[in-house]
Structure formats: C-alpha cells, structure tokens
Amino acid sequence: MEKAIAVKKGFVQVVGDHFERDGERILLRGWALGSWMNYEHFMIGLPGTHSMILEAFAEVYGKERAGEWQERMQETMVAAEDLQFLKSIGINSIRIPFGYHHFMDDDNPGVFLEHGFARLNRVVELCAQNGLFVILDMHSVPGGQNTDWHSDNGTGQPLFWQYRCFQDQTVWLWEQLSARFADNPWVIGYDVINEPSFGLTEEQINGFYERAASAIRAHDPNHILFLEGVDFGRDFTPLKELPDPQVAYTVHFYPFVLEEDVLDPGMSEARRAEIFTEIFERQLRETGRLNRPIWCGESGYNIMEGQESFYAKLLMLNVALCEERGISWNLWTYKDARRMGIVVPSENSDWIRLRRRVEACWSHEWEQKVSMEVTRSIGETYYRPLDDTLAYVLDFRIRSVLHRIAVEQILKPALREIPWEEMKRYPDGFAFANCEKRETIVDTIKHYIQTKEEESV
Questions:
Q1: Which residue in 237, 322, 436, 452 has its CB near the most CB atoms, within 10 A?
Q2: 457 residues of the chain, pLDDT tens digit each
Q3: What's the rounded Cα separation, in Å, for the pair 343 and 2?
Q4: How far, in Å, CA of 34 to CA of 332, rounded?
C-alpha cells in the first residue's frame, strides 16, 4: 500500500495517470539541453566520450586552460537568451541531462563539488525566470549505466550494475542534489538514471530504484521520481511499481533505431505512421500495469542539412503519438553542432570548421559500421562466426577501442593545430546571438502547441 506524501502547493505532482499542479491538469511539452553538461561526440563533432574529450583538451592545452575552455562552453551553450527563445516556442518544461563528473571527482568520491551545482543551478534559475519547469536527468553515472558513449562509458561495459560502490556513489549524489532542490517548485522531479542497459534482472533495476527513492525521500518529499525502462528506456517488463505516489515512468522513442527505413523520404506517410505507431505501442505495452503517468523523455533525429521540412514531419509524428495518448513529451535536442539541434552554430563558425575537419577522418555513423565489422571479423577469423546477441554485446567494447584510437589519432592532432588563443574563442560559436535557428522545425512545433492550447480553452 502506498504511503501518502504531502506535496507543497506549487509543485507539479502525480495524480493517477497524469500530472497536476495545484489541482490543474498539466501535459509536459519540452526540449532537452543535450550535450551541455554531458558532451556527446557526434553532437559536438569530436570523437570520444565526454571524459576522453576533456582529457584531450587537458593534454593539449593544460589542465587550467582546459577548465577555462569548459567553463566557457557551459556559459555560451545555455544562457538567458536560450531559455527565452525556448519559452517563445510555447513549451513548458526543460530536461537537463548532466554527467556525474560535474558533482563528484573520481579521486575524491565523497566530496560534493559545489561549483558543479552552481553551474546547474544557474540554468535551473533561468528556467524558473522564464516560467519553464525542469526535470533533472542523471545522464552518466560512475561505471556507466549502459554500454554506449552517451553514458560516458570508456569500456563498453555497464559496470555500474556489477559494482555496488558505483551505485552507492550515485545514490549519494541524488541525496546531495535532492537536498539542495527539495524546496524548488520549478523542478518537477528527478530522472533517476538515463537509459539503463539491456539484460538487467528485476533485482538489479528495482533494487537500485528502491534505494535511490529511499535516499531521495529522506531529503525531499516534494518531487516526482521519473523511472526509465531497461534496454535504453524501451523495455518496462522487469520494472515493479514502487510504493511511492510521486513516481512516473519514462520511455525513449527513436523508431529509426529499430526500423532504419523510416528515415527514407520516399516511404509513404501512411506506412511510416503505421511503423511508428507499432513501435510506440510495443514500448508502452508494459506501462499500463504501472498505473502512473508516462513521459516520453527523449525523441529526436539527426537533421540532414536542407531537409528540415521532412524532419519537422518526423518530429510531429512523434509528438502526435504522445498527445493522442495524453503522454507528456520532451524532444532531443535544443542545441548542438548542426546534428540534432534546432539552434546551431553557423556553418562558417570556427567550431563547425573544426567539426568538418574531424569529419574528414571520423564520424559516429562510420564508427558504428566499422565496429560491427571488426567484431564479426574477430569471430570469423580467429574463432567461429558470432551469433547476433554476442556480436551486439561485444560491438560496444570494440566501439570503446575505436573511441580511444580516434581521440589519439584524430582529436588530439586536430587540437594541436589550433593555438590556445584561437581555441579559447571557439565556444563563442554556440552563443545564441551567433547561432542559426532551424525555423521550419521551430515554427511547426510552435504552431502545433498554439493550436492545442487554443483547443483546450
């Protein structure tokens, strides 16, 4: 039986299968600040994981200058103008992904880094000033909660689930963060861990969620706990319902990962909608028994230059699938180096010129293709052909090897060609005033939200 939690006035809360604020029903419509506090290689155009990229800057320019560069990136990628622009689209919420390194040094795991908190809190306050709610997302944790680059995983193995010490550190971080945000009504809640790995047992996923929930509730009775499915947020089969009334569940929707053909502009709209619906319904199948609100916390596409209209249609398919079912949604992502962002550095900026130089030798898509070829070649050449399941698991380990090679042979040499006096100005390309807006996508979403709001009046 659930233990009732008294929620203060002004806080968004779970009521049955939906969200309310002070008795008024609310559907979350938002965008994520991806690759702001957790760099993703293809999104900023540099190979390697978040930590590898920072290590490369430190080796080339020195630790102090690398810190200065990172601080400038943090300031320019998300500033007051960015939140004002997002508010003008009509959305009401922002998802803020962050990596644990901002708040904890691996060499001093019991010391909370207040500077990292100040970094995060600056943007939380900007969101509040613009009337935007915030969901805080632990996007990378010690040991890596999944096998891929976006969890800052340098080994391709989700060691977080094997070692209790990594889980203890993450629980401790949530204790620290929840204690600091407990009384902030503009924070809706905590996305406890982004995209847990595949192959997790019920004991692993539920055990961690129970421990994290208990730790957070010791400091914070006010905020919603957002819990993601396993297999990168796609599978809710092993999840049990937590005895906490302020819990919602989070699905991530990237249909092209499962059916690549949906990205073919030549596919009929009817067929594409059919595939999208089938995949979305499949991912939601297990959520009905949990009797809680569902939040589609991530959904987006690599936007090819010159095809904005097509990608606007794809995003609208995703949004419509959510809205038709009363599901809150959050799009990925707001700003990056002209990949998935709706606000991007100009084509002639220093940063994009660096990205183009790196792309001559490396790309995320090429790396994925090569890693699987190498993985299967190892089996065929030295052992026996690998079955698909083993190849899939080992592929992530080979990717981690390719990350390291690319950092050593592509990223560091590229950085060494750029004097510090130039590099320290590169983050300015991400400043809102220096960016371009993908107007077709922005206008499409803006018009949709305005129409929905008018219908609800």
A1: 322
A2: 445 455 578 999 999 999 999 999 999 999 999 999 999 999 999 999 999 999 999 999 999 999 999 999 999 999 999 999 999 999 999 999 999 999 999 999 899 999 999 999 999 999 999 999 999 999 999 999 999 999 999 999 999 999 999 999 999 999 999 999 999 999 999 999 999 999 999 999 999 999 999 999 999 999 999 999 999 999 999 999 999 999 999 999 999 999 999 999 999 999 999 999 999 999 999 998 998 999 999 999 999 999 999 999 999 999 999 999 999 999 999 999 999 999 999 999 999 999 999 999 999 999 999 999 999 999 999 999 999 999 999 999 999 999 999 999 999 999 999 999 999 999 999 999 999 999 999 999 999 999 999 998 7
A3: 43
A4: 7
Residue 380 CA to residue 401 CA, distance in Å, equals 19
CA 186 to the chain's CA centroid: 20
CA distances from 170 to 8, 78, 166, 225, 250 (A): 26, 25, 6, 15, 19
Helix (H) or strand (E) holding 189: strand 187-191
Single-letter residue type at 175: E
Question: If you count them, how many residues does the chain have?
Answer: 457
**Rg of the Cα trace of the chain?**
21
Instruction: Determine the residue type at 183.
Output: D
Contacts of 65 (CB under 8 A, 6+ apart): 57, 420, 424
Question: What is the rounded CA–CA span in Å between residue 337 and residue 355?
Answer: 8
Q: How far is CA 428 from CA 75, 260, 345, 349, in A?
A: 9, 35, 9, 9
As a dihedral over the C-alpha atoms of residue 28, residue 31, residue 37, residue 38, rounded to 10 degrees, the angle is 100
Residue 229 identity: G
Does 3.20.20.140 match the CATH number of domain 13-456? no
Lookup: tokens for 254 = 């990237």
CA 370 from chain centre, in angstroms, equals 25
Phi-psi category of 427—alpha, beta or left, where left has phi over 0 and alpha has psi -120 to 50? alpha
* DSSP 3-state of 62: coil
Q: Which two tokens stand for residue 373?
A: 């070829």
Under DSSP, the state recorded for 290 is G
For the chain, the domains span: 13-456
Token pair, residue 294, equals: 């569902």
